[in-house]
Amino acid sequence: MAIFDKLAHAAKDFFIEPEAGAPTPPTPQYGAAAPPAAAPATSNTTPPAAPAPGQAEQRHLDHITGLLSGDGKDFAAYMKMVKSMAAAGLNGPMLYQTTFNAFSAVNGGTVPALLASATQFEQTLADDRAKVLARHREKMGEGAAPGAAPGPVALLMVQEKKLAEDLAELTRQLQAKQQQLLQTQQQLGEERQKTQSALASYELANAAAMAELQTHHKAAETFLNGAK
Predict the structure, then answer these.
(1) Looking at residue 143, what is its pLDDT?
(2) Is 81 within 8 Å of 74 (Cβ atoms)?
(3) By the 8 A CB rule, do 67 and 124 touch?
(4) Element (H, E) at 53
(5) 93, 42 Cβ separation under 8 angstroms
(6) What spatial distance separates the first Cα and last Cα of the chain, rounded to whole Å?
(7) How far apart are CA 4 and CA 134, in angstroms?
(8) Residue 30 carries which DSSP code?
(9) Coil, helix or strand for 55?
(10) Which of 19, 116, 143, 218 keeps 20 to 30 A from 12, CA to CA?
């Protein structure tokens, strides 16, 4: 039957090592998009497809792959078989049950042991994420351990704060100087106006005195010289 041909092909792809010099088929990484397969039957036992890694860096994908590498008798190996048989056309409960039957036949694994292995891998991912988040918080200057050397982000945050304080102080000084300049310009305008007013007053007094002096000078010259 066709289904047995697919199972045989999937099992062959998984268990048989490639011959020397033969190209090795690519093995999908955990979390990577699986090859196109038939739509799985609606069932509570079929988990939703994992999201594509998107823009995750390859070094992070390699790190996660390293965390999920086992001894070939754990849930990581079982999951690899699931993907292989899904690519062969199996889906739904038959996919997981048939894969387990083949998996158990090879290494004698049991369902409790297999599920416990999955729980261990999940805990490994959770613990690793907690460590990464802790390192991230330290780099960001959040909750660094006492006595620990500050990270580059924390150092730049200190520098940013100092520069912001310096800029605020310079801004305050600039505003004070601007106020002093305005006051000085106002005083200068007032003094110029007073000086101009004083000069105008003097010019009036001087002109009046000069006119009066010249008038009397001419009169005296005329009358005094005529009297001789």
Answers:
(1) 66
(2) no
(3) yes
(4) none
(5) no
(6) 163
(7) 49
(8) T
(9) coil
(10) 116
Nearest-CA neighbor of 38 among 105, 102, 107, 89?
A: 89
- CB atoms under 10 Å from CB of 58, counted, come to 9
Query: What is residue 138's predicted lDDT score, i.e. its pLDDT?
Result: 80
By the 8 A CB rule, do 55 and 4 touch? no
DSSP 74-128: SHHHHHHHHHHHHHTT--HHHHHHHHHHHHHHHH---HHHHHHHHHHHHHHHHHH
The pLDDT of residue 108 is 85
Q: How far is CA 18 from CA 9, 10, 83, in A?
A: 14, 14, 18
Q: Which residue has the tokens 């994908």?
A: 61
Q: How far apart are CA 186 and CA 167, in angstroms?
A: 28
Give the C-alpha separation, 91 to 48, whole Å.
12
Q: Distance between CA atoms of 3 and 71, rounded to whole angstroms?
A: 29
pLDDT tens per residue, range 93-143: 999 999 999 999 988 889 999 999 999 999 999 999 999 998 888 877 776
Identity at 225, one-letter amino acid code: N
CA 89 to each of CA 9, 37, 84, 86, 94: distance values in angstroms, whole numbers, following the listed order: 11, 6, 9, 5, 11
Distance, in Å, from the CA atom of 64 to the CA atom of 128, rounded to the nearest integer, reads 9
